[in-house]
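Hi,

I'm pasting everything inline rather than attaching a file, because the server keeps stripping attachments. The sequence lines come first, and each chain or strand is labelled.
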Amino acid sequence: MKEEEEEEEILKILEGNARIADKEIARMVGLKEEEVKQIISELENRGVIRKYKAVINPEKAGIETVHALIDVKVGPERDTGYDPVAERIVRFPEVKSVRLISGEYDLSVLVGGNTMREVAYFVAEKISSLEQVRNTVTHFLLKTYKENGEIYEEEEKVKRLAVTL
Amino acid sequence: MNSNRVADRVREIEGSGIRKFFDIAQQMEEAISLGVGEPDFVTPWSIREACIFSLEKGYTSYTSNWGLLELREMLSDKMYNEDSVYYEPEGEILITTGVSEASDLALRAILNPGDEVIIHEPSYVSYKPCTVFAGGVPVCVATEVENEFKLQAEEIEEKITEHTKAVVLNYPNNPTGATLSRKDLEEIADVVNEHDLLVISDEVYGKLTYEGKHTCFSSLNGMRDRTILLNGFSKAYAMTGWRLGYAAGNKEIIEAMMKIHQYVMMCAPITAQMAAMEALRCNDEVERMVSEYNRRRRLMVEGLREIGLSCFEPKGAFYTFPSIVSTGLTSEEFAKRLLLEEKVVVIPGSVFGACGEGFIRCAYAVSQYEIKEVLERMRRFLERHHVV
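And the predicted assembly:
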């Protein structure tokens, strides 16, 4: 395997399971454990690996949270475009993700909170009130079926016999 | 009791001696099974979805005996692009219900009573009985772990008699995971040419090749006309239950196979054929599964070595074939005790021919987590038997 291929393979493995032992990654990629450690720390230093996080199904955890997707229509500023307003919005901890999108609206913002009321107030006070924001539409999320490539319900397993030749 | 109701040639085929063991394994629900000869992936959704759509549109009839022309055209393109060999969609490609049917048809189409077929062992269990059912005589060649279970050209040559009609090749191999390089295949091709033989090449594991690229036997110089190429959707596309395969070869032989097929099978199921057309568009999914098998392969081989079993490095399929000679147990005893004591299913190597004795087949078509767990159980087992 070439160096880039090794990196890519390690990233794929970590994307599937970030808690896997370096030793096992080493086996799967055909490298020494030390080499894997080295490559991973380089990937971390270069900011390729941003963080290791768990994918949590809050419903199963019994955590009550409310999320809403906010479509935001922005009047872009001359010279700087959408960046200044987006950079203001990303700083709020209630904001989980911000994306510039094509279509009728300009930004897609995911907001999380403890109650619907909390989220609605946040949008009204902190986002709609921004000078450049022309209009918003709030979509409350009702159920998550798949997140980050993970299906939330039990992943289907193939039904096989125990022995086939 | 010697009933004369069952034909001699059927009665004389040995029933599998380890049925009982299989039955125990089948019923033990919490067991982890490495005894499975099929992917642990469900058929990719887009393939299933295409099949459902075809049912909704009313595709529920017979197809041409040859199989859907559109599917044969797609296969023709695929073989041309991936295997570097061209077959005409009409007359040179036959869609079958799995490679199982295709190999049976191939043997029946070419064998006269008493014709000999050279079969390498350890091998998939059906070539020998199907040869007998077709009136032929299986001539087995034991492949050796020292040669990485590669069939050697000179070993074929030693077995050739005036009755030899064909050689069966199954690489990447079930149960060993062995592969043959282009050079290995070319040496075999020379012998085949020299002695005017046919080759039945079962390449169902071809896409599951982890080092280098699989070489299709019929793409070798002069071999297209001598080869009956068999392939199918079961392994690479995780479609075992769909029962869909195909045979490609020269018109004369494929037409002969078609003659048998039209009387015994009529055609492969149309739902499976519709799904197969979508499968041929799913290369990304195949790649994803192949790279996952490759990771598991390395985990399994290194893991088996670490717990003290000597294990040849397989370069294809999804099987490892470690030696258990160091335990002093026969492969059947080993498998039985491992099942009863640690609830792990492996297949005794002896099932795949006498020369498989001393080995077990461990399929790594299970999750990484299960591989870890199985290795731990096997470590305990080996320690208890004072091997390590």
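The first strand of chain A starts at residue 66 and ends at 74.

If the labels don't parse on your end, tell me and I'll reformat.
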